[in-house]
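Thread: quick sanity check before group meeting

JM: Hey all, I'm pulling together slides for Thursday and realized we never actually wrote out the predicted structure for the chain we discussed last week. Dropping the sequence here so it's in one place. If anyone has concerns about the input, flag it before I start.
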Amino acid sequence: MEDIWLLVIAGLIFIAFTILFLRLGRAFVKQEYGSKMWNHWPSKLFSWQAAIFYSLILTVITLFLLRWTNVLTF
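JM (edit): ok, ran it. Output follows.
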């Protein structure tokens, strides 16, 4: 039962970081490359790949920080 809660917490942290990254990054990408370039799928794919990668890294770091502070045990 404890493992299920750990997965739920990790999933919620991952989703939160992904949404945060996409919301903050969208304005930068549109400004940097232009809205015409944003409508092409390779630009959107690159943005999603970056969001997933950084969210995964931040989720792992957050989980280990929570473990280090004895908030979570796994």
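AS: nice. The chain has a mean pLDDT of 88. The chain is about 85% helix and 0% strand.
JM: adding both to the slides.
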